[in-house]
Amino acid sequence: MLRQALIAGLILTSIVMVSYYHQQTISDNLQRVAADGKVKVDLYSESLCPDCLAFITKSLKTAVNTKDFWKICEFNFYPYGNGKRVQNGSSWAFTCQHGVKECQGNLIEACAIRKYDY
Fold it and tell me: How far apart are CA 55 and CA 72, in angstroms?
């Protein structure tokens, strides 16, 4: 009897959690629509992250090559990902999950975005 009550309690808790998560997801997604009605996609990436590179060269590539992707999507790319920053007086120090070369790659990508007004 106690076991059944515990299982029922776990199921009820799971339903409440899923319901709350679903409501939050809907609310968050409504805020992800740009003023012009396009879906907003913000990609925070790391220049040397194997998972980021796989996503960009597979799933994102497929999406971007889909007809009218740019008509329905406002896409923003942030080459920062899992970087950390620490202020040391008037200067900043950066560390990246995949090392110094990744920080350099992120910087190059950020400069290209700024230069080409992406």
Answer: 20
Q: Is residue 107 part of a domain?
A: yes
Specify if 90 maps to a domain. Answer: yes
Taking only the tens place, the pLDDT of each residue in 26-49 is 445 545 666 788 999 999 999 999
Please count the structural domains in the chain.
Answer: 1
Proportion of the chain above pLDDT 70, given as a percent: 70
Closest CA to 102 of 42, 44, 49: 49
Tell me the residue range of the domain where 46 lies.
32-115
The pTM of the full predicted model, rounded to 2 decimals, is: 0.63
**If you write DSSP's letter for every residue of 26-57 in order, what string do you get?**
HHHHHTTB-TTSPEEEEEE--TT-HHHHHHII
